[in-house]
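Researcher: Can you fold this with acetoacetyl-coenzyme A in place?
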Amino acid sequence: REYQCIVVSEAEGVGSIELNRPRVLNALNRQMVGEILHAMEHFDADEGVRVIVLTGRGRAFAAGADIDEMMHEDTVSLEMMNQFTDWDRLACIKKPVIGAVHGFALGGAFELALCCDMLFAAETASFGFPEVQLGIMPGAGGTQRLTKLLGKTKAMEWLMTGKRISAQEAHKYGIVNEVFADEVLMEETMKFAAALGKQAPLAVRLIKESVLKAVDHSLYEGMQFERKNFYLLFSSEDQKEGMAAFKEKRVPHFKGR
Ligand code: CAA
């Protein structure tokens, strides 16, 4: 499929998606969100892809939902359009998704970053939920995902003030895994992604599923779910290979079966 708002590529088991509307700082219009979802689902189904990397072209990751597109909507048009179901589907991607953020990640773009399983940020990255300054609030999971990550009090502060959060602060609060100098962000992200792509694919897949369950469910329920996935891995060839390789002191050769 031809994309207008994103650029996709694939190399060494890593599928990359770059947001590409740099003139408006990659403002997320509905078409772009649809294209991101399409590309993610395509990579998810592609056996050659092990890890998905999401980043922005130009001087920002993205400056949030497209205000030009959104400003004339009303409650009924939004309800009928039901645009956020795309976001529900984004949360169902099975392969690990790594976000690489430089410049702004505001509003809907911060929500998109929070959908990623891991985040790397450039020193100049800045995050924030400025919706409140537009008289609205996040609509694509921001209040939920931020609260689960930060706890109630900090989430309230960030969401109600719309303040800008530096990469360092985001790192301090566990929003990003690591902060890199701007010029090495992509190189380091791709290095991490390629290494992640060499881990046992089934184990990585079920770890993702289990961690997301922990975020979403009670500890007890999550542990029952984790246990089932743990048992399930013991019917894979990779479990036998991984443990045999350990005993034989050699590098395992995983096949994803
Ligand atoms: N929607 C549409 N256009 C946008 C945009 C957005 N979210 N963000 C930036 N742009 C456009 C600007 O209008 C400008 O276009 P023109 O050159 O045609 O005027 C261009 O991108 C460059 O932006 P600036 O000149 O403003 O760049 P700057 O460096 O001076 O400022 C900024 C950067 C602080 C990010 C500023 O652009 C800004 O505040 N943008 C809006 C951020 C925002 O409020 N995002 C939240 C949207 S609401 C949301 O996301 C809802 C949701 O949860 C679903």
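Model: Folded with acetoacetyl-coenzyme A in place. The chain has two domains: 6-196, 201-247.
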